[in-house]
Fold this protein.
Amino acid sequence: MAEAEIQSGEKEYFLDIPQKNETFFLKGCANYDWGMKNRLARIFNPRSGKTVMLAFDHGYFQGPTTGLERIDVTILPLTPFADALMLTRGILRSVIPAATSNPVVMRASGGPSILKELSNEHIACDMDDAVRMNCSAVAVQVFIGGEYETQSVGNMTRLVDAGMRVGMPVLGVTAVGKELVRDVKYIGLATRMCAELGAAVVKTYFVPDFEKVAAGCPVPLVIAGGKKLPELEALKMAADAIQQGASGVDMGRNIFQSDAPVAMLKAVRKVVHEGLNYKQANEYFLELKNAKNG
Ligand code: 5RP
């Protein structure tokens, strides 16, 4: 059969169509290998260039945080509306169905509880296990200005080295100690350090003048939600962050502690992927919430 095909002379090479040489859609990520890019493209939507990650890893140092007492009951119904899940390997293996199609961002640092010095973290998940769990990224807390600053930076750089060997992106999470001021100067320092030291993506907090933080960080930034706010305020924060250069959100409490978590998650998606302003997004949230309650 193979010989017959060669003799037919009817192959089509589309000689008039040059092969496309596509660049990668995420800021600062063009020089990674294919596997790393493919993992990033599972987390970030290639059409919008943005992501809505659902964070529910809080138990790794806080125990059963309000809203996360029963992840099987409260979080599983949200997963179809999230672009990625940020969680611990304990919850992945005990609660998340293996048939899920959500990409996984695995918490890979930990150690101290809320009762101790939080910056004293170690690497809490081997890269081999992250690959075994088919993760799309690993996340590590970095405590710039914290007591164990250097140790936490070392956790990140070790994960970056291990990630480079297998094509696993590292999400550097800037943790802000109680004694530190969350402002553009501090967040600018912490995010830039994470990027300089190899994080493919950085998670941080929204602060006034965020556009300067985004401009000074050469890789994508996603914002955490922080403590529960009224939905209008949380949507405004997300919208401001997106307008000022964030590539998405990695939000937890402002979604799973909402009265209507699915409605809130869908409203956040409108802001992040469709550029809805926060007032329109809040109306959408209320419509969904009232329709459910009506
Ligand atoms: C814990 C984390 C959380 O994932 C992060 O804080 C996101 O959750 P929230 O929106 O509730 O702040 O990194 O350290």
Remarks:
- The chain has a mean pLDDT of 95.
- The chain has 13 helices and ten strands.
- The beta strands are 51-55, 84-87, 104-107, 109-110, 122-123, 137-142, 170-174, 201-204, 221-224, 248-251.
